[in-house]
Design the sequence.
């Protein structure tokens, strides 16, 4: 079992719709969770971080964390063509040395006009 | 502007020719890390450093060396590059305060695309 798993996609959504991305992780005592957006050939860019169970909203993005079920999700509301990218879920476990992040393989999102 | 810089951005080299990829950050971050990204394998950590003169192996350290003589710089050294080190490389940095919201976020450099022939 991979430590951090994501559906590779592509997830195709019409413009204006909600994109829903999921991520599961295996380390039960993970403490920090991040969503990064990466355009092809570019560096990962932080969208959201979440540390406590529940929802966290920032503009059109909402991150949801459920530690009991070991999953974290990202909702993108009113999806725009510029949201077309690969979204990386990253997890930092309490046992991880230093600030080591473990990344999922990423979910490719395509927003169609 | 707060940033992580890497040089070179693109490099084509031949097997066995030593090379160094530089990484520098201007945010006074303690923690720095190198990742490689390959299709189907995602981002994998190569080496990391928690402060000056403190470095340790990540998940895929074979064939790489690093040094941390100054807080702002964390070069990646390939003593004898091989074709399987052809990849996209990212340097990242963060404050070293684990689990504190907004503080332990890692910021990535623009990437270095390396091709070893």
Sequence:
């Amino acid at each position: 079992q991979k430590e951090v798993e994501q559906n590779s996609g592509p997830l195709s959504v019409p413009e204006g719709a909600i994109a829903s991305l999921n991520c599961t992780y295996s380390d039960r005592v993970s403490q920090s969770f991040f969503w990064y957006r990466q355009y092809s050939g570019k560096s990962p860019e932080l969208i959201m971080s979440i540390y406590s169970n529940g929802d966290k909203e920032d503009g059109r993005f909402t991150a949801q964390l459920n530690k009991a079920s070991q999953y974290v999700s990202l909702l993108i509301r009113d999806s725009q063509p510029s949201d077309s990218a690969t979204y990386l879920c990253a997890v930092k476990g309490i046992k991880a040395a230093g600030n080591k992040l473990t990344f999922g393989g990423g979910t490719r999102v395509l927003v169609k006009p | 502007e707060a940033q992580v810089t890497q040089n070179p951005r693109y490099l084509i080299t031949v097997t066995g020719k030593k090379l160094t990829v530089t990484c520098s950050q201007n945010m006074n971050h303690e923690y720095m890390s190198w990742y490689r990204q390959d299709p189907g394998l995602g981002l994998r950590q190569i080496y990391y450093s928690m402060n000056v003169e403190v470095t340790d192996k990540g998940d895929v350290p074979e064939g790489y060396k690093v040094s941390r003589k100054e807080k702002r710089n964390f070069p990646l050294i390939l003593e004898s590059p091989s074709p399987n080190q052809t990849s996209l490389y990212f340097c990242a940095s963060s404050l070293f305060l684990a689990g504190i919201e907004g503080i332990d976020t890692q910021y990535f450099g623009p990437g270095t695309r390396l091709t070893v022939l």
